C-alpha cells in the first residue's frame, strides 16, 4: 500500500522521487512509517504558511500506516497458528498408522479363508431401502444384499464371502455397487466406501497424507471413518 503526501510547494525532487519509488516494493510497515516521516518533515519544512497542511489528511495517512502494521502483525500471528495446526494434524495422522480407514471406493478383497475386507456407504439423506450388488473380476453378480432402510451418515458392513447360494467365493478382488431409494420411491445418492490400511504418513507443503499401500495416498479429509 503506498502512502501519498501532497506538498503545497515543491521540495527537493531527488529526495521525494527516491522515497516514493522505494515504497512500491514489498516493504514492511516500519519501512513505510520511516519514509512517511521523512516526507512529512519535508512537507512541514516547505509548506506554505498561509495554507498549512490539513490535519485530517495527516490523520488519515497515519491511520493507513497503523492499519498496515496491524495487518502485518495479524499475518504473523495467523502464520504461527497455521504452523501449529499443521504440526497437530501430522501428529493426529501418525496415530492412524496400523489402523483401517474407510475411503471412497468400490473394492472388496476376499482371502483364502473367505475373510473379506469391510465395505461401506455414505448417505447424505435417509434411504428407505439400500441394495448392495457384489460382482467378481469378470463382472458377474455373485451376491445381492438388501440392507433395508438406512439413516443418513456413514455405515460399514462385512460380507461373509459367500454367493447367493451360500457357497464360498474364490479368493480375489471383487467390486460392489449401491442402489438407494428414498421414502418417496425415488433414487437417492449413496457413496460407496472401501477399506484401506494405513501404512504411514507423509507431509508435503504442510499437508499430511496417509500412505494406504496399493490404495495410494489420501489426505485426512478423504477419510470417512476410522476402524
TrEMBL record:
Record GO biological process: bacterial-type flagellum organization
Gene3D superfamilies: 2.30.30.910, 2.60.40.4070
Record has Chaperone as a keyword: no
Domain FlgD Tudor-like: 88-224
Domain FlgD/Vpr Ig-like: 114-183
Composition bias, Polar residues: 1-13
Region (Disordered): 1-30
Domain of life: Bacteria
Bias (Low complexity) ranges: 14-30
Keywords, sorted A to Z: Bacterial flagellum biogenesis, Cell projection, Cilium, Flagellum
Role summary: Required for flagellar hook formation. May act as a scaffolding protein.
Family: Belongs to the FlgD family.
The protein's name in its UniProt record: Basal-body rod modification protein FlgD
Organism, as annotated: Acerihabitans arboris
Upper taxonomic lineage: Bacteria, Pseudomonadati, Pseudomonadota, Gammaproteobacteria, Enterobacterales
Gene name for this UniProt entry: flgD
